[in-house]
Amino acid sequence: MSNKKIDDLNTDTVDIQQHHPGLTTDAGLKVSDTDTWLKVSNGELVGPSLLEDQVAREKIHRFDHERIPERVVHARGAGAFGSFRVFNDNASKYTSAGVLTDSSRSTPVFVRFSTVQGSRGSADTVRDVRGFAVKFYTEEGNWDLVGNNIPVFFIQEAMKFPDFVHAVKPEPHNEVPQGQSAHNNFWDFFNLQPETSHMIMWVMSDRAIPRSYRMMQGFGVNTYTLQNAAGELFFVKFHWLPELGVHSLVWDEALKLAGQDPDFHRKDLNEAIENGAPAKWTLAIQVIPEGDEHKYDFDILDATKIWPEELIPVQPVGEMVLDRTVDEYFTQTEQVAFCTSHIVPGIGFSDDPLLQGRNFSYFDTQITRLGVNWEELPINRPVCPYMNFNRDGAMRHRITKGSVNYWPNRFEQLPPVEVAKGGLKQYPQKVSGVKERVRGAKFQEHYKQAQLFYNSMTDVEKAHLISAISFELDHCDDPTVYTTAVQRLNDIDHELAKQVAINIGGPLPGKSARVNHGKTSRLSQFEFKPTTPTIKSRRIAILVSDGFDGATVEAMRTAIKAAGALPFVIGARRGSIYPAGETPGKGEGIIADHHFEGQRSTMFDALFIPGGSQHVRSLASNGRAIHWILEAFGHLKPIGAVGEGVALLRDAAHLPGVQFADGSTGTVISDYGVVTAGSLTPSSLSEGLKIVKGAAD
Ligand code: HDE
Q1: 202 CA to centre of ligand 1 in angstroms
Q2: What confidence tens digit (pLDDT) does each residue in 373-392 have?
Q3: Which residues contact 115 (CB under 8 A, 6 or more apart)?
Q4: 74 flagged as catalytic
Q5: Sign of torsion, CA 603 686 650 622?
Q6: CATH topology of 77-376 equal to that of 451-527?
Q7: Which candidate in 112, 530, 564, 631 could, as Cys together with 536 as Cys, close a disulfide (CB 3.0–4.6 Å)?
Q8: CA 366 to ligand 1: nearest atom
Q9: Residue 668 pLDDT class (50, 70, 90 cuts)
Q10: Please, which residues have CB within 8 angstroms of residue 209's CB and are 6 or more apart in sequence?
């Protein structure tokens, strides 16, 4: 399908595989030697290098300036292209914005996902908030919805942002730690700034270690406004709901992946798109009419609060599909620049103080990062016509003809556009008051929604949350920090604080004066299941050694591919592995995609162990193979085993008490996510795939 933004970028794209005029300088001079600097020599001895070699000099100078400042936050990211289409008329009552109401449009988008704390080279799977920034290239100009995968934020006031970011980033004296909030300063900030209470619950939950960017919710976080054709105003919160449901890693996987495959999320996004599994989200809105602003016991403009969906329903509007990877990281994912202030007619801001500050910050930061002409860069320019009298500045490259560069001018060139013809309409809001540095009364309450979130977690999620906080506080070596943190947690929930105190040491907290209200909402990630159960794009490892059962592996590979998932054969070595009946060294056997040391179980969603007596004997004597199985089992991955593979699984995963099937019918031990069968039959295969699907659910 055509995508206007891709067409636009193509006008600036060269493909070195298609065009190879030979090497030239940037000025077009053909270069005959790009490896050896011009020198003085007498034929035998080689003397000094000559500064006069302008080709060498320019190559080095150009290289010296390759880096630009990385983003002060959200430095590490991954991007993809796609499109957005409205699928109903839910939004028409509230907004005149074509991008949200016109179902005949396909609006091109670019999305950049990111972590927040770490620098550009940090690992993907660290515990952190994930950025979820969407640039809609609409017919009325760019709309940037710069969100996160968590619906609330740490602070209420933009002016606190530098303090917060300084506190969470590596400490100033030693630049430690990288990609972590597990340090004194972050928790000190939490201790002293109670408005962080709600967000800290989310960041310590499994939401902060997603399995994939494709399996996260997204949230606009701030309160925006919508305006309809009749001029009525509504407050709005934006939500992205992933087609695949919300899934997380377990902490042990996240820790290991940070070392084993620091690009895990980046690769996952590209791998899925390239294998025909585009990533999809539903865009949904929560809407409050202008007159109802003060109806709730929380302030609807406070970014540390959610709008519980039991009170304000989440209404689906359209679907975003990401189906194209970037061609070049720097010019696309690095140079893309978002601005919350970029809205289109029908969408507006509210007095949310955090949003007001963001509207200032983003434009400003892009000037430092990319220069004043950052909006001219191919990835940032709109797909609709644009023209104005902004001029000049470093690296201006658009050439504008005409003899005037101001308005009004005697030629009446470029007059402002009337509102009726699509010009930006300001909502005529009556504002009066006293100039004061104040926060609204409801902004003073910080605990009710922190409790709401905690109460809404399942037991498993609560246990993970307690472990996460205990992990982080264990990395704080200042007793003031971790003992105060327990007191602060006690304001949210006494049991939670007590469990953490037991783990991390220090005095146990007394009963809190603030009682947990016990209410819940739909916030557990288990509530956000895939639209349709699927294993599409999931990575399934098949462990093999020489002498494996070839027919079973082939059948399994075919079944996995047919379900849209990705089979990977993992062997003792990368290269030919021979099935039973074939002589090693003769013929090709099966080519293992990876070896046990090169890839670890953490990188896969499920594991299959075929039969074959020699193959099982050799896996059983391989410590790494045993570790693979045990680790996959420990991380609750679905595991299938057939024939002799069943005993190997039983022994490796230490399951002596569990009865495995040794007949041909197959037994499902669903509590463990384990499926076994004497041989691969259509019924055991379909049971197995059901378990994998269940786990992906
Ligand atoms: Fe940002 N934020 N932010 N932020 N933010 C930036 O802009 C800022 C906030 C978010 O992939 C910066 O281009 C202030 C909330 C994302 O390029 C900077 C405040 C949310 C991204 C900035 C906030 C976000 C940024 C750094 C408090 C969730 C990455 C580089 C008032 C809704 C976008 C840049 C990308 C990036 C400022 C709070 C999300 C400095 C002042 C709340 C996803 O301008």
Answers
A1: 18
A2: 999 999 999 999 999 999 99
A3: 74, 76, 77, 122, 124, 126, 128, 129, 130, 131, 179
A4: yes
A5: negative
A6: no
A7: 564
A8: 13
A9: low
A10: 125, 126, 127, 248, 249, 250, 251, 254
Helix (H, G, I), strand (E, B) or coil at 249: coil
- Quick one: which H or E segment has residue 161? helix 161-168
Ligand 1 atom closest to the CA of 146, numbered from 1: 43
Give, to the nearest 10 degrees, the angle between helix 494-504 and helix 459-474.
40
Domain ranges of the chain: 77-376, 451-527, 539-696
CATH no. for 539-696: 3.40.50.880
CA of 665 to the centre of ligand 1 (A): 55
ipTM: 0.98
Interstrand relation of 77-86 and 315-325 (parallel, antiparallel or unpaired): antiparallel
Which pLDDT tens digit goes with each residue over 71-118?
999 999 999 999 999 999 999 999 999 999 999 999 999 999 999 999
What SS3 state is found at 223? coil
Give the CATH fold of the 77-376 domain: Catalase HpII,  Chain A, domain 1 (2.40.180)
SS percent in the chain: helix, strand, coil, step 5: 35, 20, 50
pLDDT digits over 317-368, tens only?
999 999 999 999 999 999 999 999 999 999 999 999 999 999 999 999 999 9
Q: What is the homologous superfamily of the domain 451-527 according to CATH?
A: Catalase, four-helical domain (1.20.1370.20)
- Phi/psi for 142 (5° steps) reads -80, 135
Q: Are 370 and 68 in contact (CB under 8 A)?
A: yes
H-state helical runs in 418-519: 448-456, 459-474, 479-490, 494-504
Exposure string for 141-175, b = 16+ CB within 10 A, e = fewer? bbbbbbbbbbbbbbbbbbebbeebbebbbbeeeee
φ, ψ of residue 513 in degrees (nearest 5)? -70, -25
Q: How far apart are CA 573 and CA 465, in angstroms?
A: 39
Active-site hit among 20, 61, 90, 148: 148
624 touches 597 (CB < 8 A): yes
Segment 502-542, tens digit of pLDDT:
999 989 999 988 999 999 999 999 999 998 999 999 999 99
Q: Give Dmax (Cα) for the chain.
A: 92
DSSP state of 30: B
